[in-house]
Amino acid sequence: MSDQKTAVITGGGQGIGKGIAKRLASDGFAIILSDMNEEVLNTTVKEFKEQNINVASFVGNVSKPEDQEALVKTAVDHFGRVDVFINNAGIEQVAPIDNIQPSELEKLFQVNVFGVVYGIQAAAKQMKKQGTGGKIINACSIAGHQAFTMLAAYSATKFSVRAFTQAAAKEYAKDKITVNAYCPGIVGTGMWDRIDAGMVEYMGLEQEEAFKKFSEGIALGRTQEPEDVANFVSYLASSDSDYMTGQSVMIDGGIVYN
Ligand SMILES: NC(=O)C1=CN([C@@H]2O[C@H](COP(=O)(O)OP(=O)(O)OC[C@H]3O[C@@H](n4cnc5c(N)ncnc54)[C@H](O)[C@@H]3O)[C@@H](O)[C@H]2O)C=CC1
Ligand SMILES: CC(=O)C(C)=O
C-alpha cells in the first residue's frame, strides 16, 4: 500500500467539491475526482495536473450503486487505498410544496440520499478490507437542520443525510471509520445560480435578489466561498478529528444556530 493517503471526492468537477479537492491535495492526499459532468471533470483534472496534483478521475453517477463501487475500484487501482471518501455531489430543487412533482422528488432523493448511501457502502467496504479505518464525510447543509421555504424537498434530503451520518457513525465505529458531515450556508456556486433562477420564477424576485435576501442574515457579513467549506473538511479528513463521529456541523458564517 502506498504511503500517500487517498481522498475520493464526488461532484468534484466544480464548486464546493473542487475547493475541497484542492485543499486536500495541498494537505498531501492523492485525489480521485469524480463527477457525472465529464466536461467540467476533465477541465478540472487538467488544471490540477498543471499544478502537479496527484489526481485521477472517474466519470460516474452517484445514484448508481455500481458507479460508486467502480469509483472505489478506480481509487484502489490508481493509488492502492481509500482513506477519505467525500459524498459531496448533490442537486437542488426550488418549488413550493404544491408544485413538487413525483419525478423531481424521486430524482432529488436518488442523488442526495441514495447516492450518499451507496457512497457510504462502497467506501466502508474498502476501508474495512484495508483494516486501516477511514473517514467518510457527507455534504449536508444548514437546510439539514432547518427546512427552508421553496426548498422543502431539498431540505428533506439533507435531514436524511444527517440521519445516515449518525447511523453510519454508530455502525462503523468498531471498524475505526468515522462518519461526519459539513453543513454549508450560502456558497456562491452554480447551485446557488440555479436556486436564484428558481426563486425568480416562483417568488417574482429580480435576478440575484434571492441570493442577496438569503445572505442578509449572515452574522459574519459575507457569503461563503468553497474554500471556507474546504478548511473545515480538511480538519474532518485529518487525524485531528479522530475523536469526532456522527456529527453534521454548521460551517455557515452564522445563519443557523443549534
Ligand atoms: N452551494 C451552496 O450554497 C450549498 C451547497 N451544499 C451542498 O454541497 C454540495 C456541493 O454543492 P455545490 O458545489 O454548490 O454544487 P454544484 O452544482 O456547483 O456542483 C455539484 C457537482 O456535482 C455534480 N453532480 C450532480 N449530480 C451528480 C450525480 N448524480 N453524480 C455525480 N455527480 C453529480 C455536478 O455535475 C457538479 O459538478 C451539494 O451536496 C450541495 O447540496 C450545501 C449547502 C449550501
Ligand atoms: C443550497 C443550500 O443548501 C442552501 C441552504 O442554500
TrEMBL record:
Superkingdom of origin: Bacteria
Key words, A-Z: NAD, Oxidoreductase
The keyword Secreted appears for this protein: no
Reactions listed under catalytic activity: (S)-acetoin + NAD(+) = diacetyl + NADH + H(+)
EC number(s) given by UniProt: 1.1.1.304
Signal peptide: none
Nucleus found in the keyword field: no
Alphabetized InterPro entries for the sequence: 23BDH, NAD(P)-bd_dom_sf, Sc_DH/Rdtase_CS, SDR_fam
Residue ranges crossing the lipid bilayer per the database entry: none
One Pfam family linked to the record: adh_short
Protein family per UniProt: Belongs to the short-chain dehydrogenases/reductases (SDR) family.
Function: Catalyzes the irreversible reduction of 2,3-butanediol to (S)-acetoin in the presence of NADH.
Name of the molecule in the record: diacetyl reductase [(S)-acetoin forming]
